[in-house]
Amino acid sequence: MKKELFAGVLLLVLIGLCAWNLRYLSRMCTQLDEAVAQAEASCAAGDPARASETLRAASARWSEAEDYAHCMLPHESTDAVTEGFRRAIRTAETGDPSAAVMPATRLPQSVSTSSRISGLMMNTTLSKPARRAS
Is the pTM of this model over 0.70? Predict the structure, then answer.
């Protein structure tokens, strides 16, 4: 009986940690999306300095969580997000008003929005399909 109780408690703890992980990643991606939207609006309003500052802050936030994200998400997606921030910062720093849609807004589709990252997390950690041999 103790083994079953322990297994049940452990299962509940794991489910709780999965939910916390999903919430953390969703919240982080929402914050990054909002920062990119603010930077895009600043760039469109002709304030590339503010856009660059906003993107640098978002990039720093991403860098803090990048090691964790590498554990939870495909490496090519996390690397592409990092590179997307670098390109967006360079674009904002040029002050080119024709570049109203900055590269960061075209971050990999699997990571660029919180709803997509939630789906990616669910697919990656909970229901990873078996690969078929070709």
Answer: no
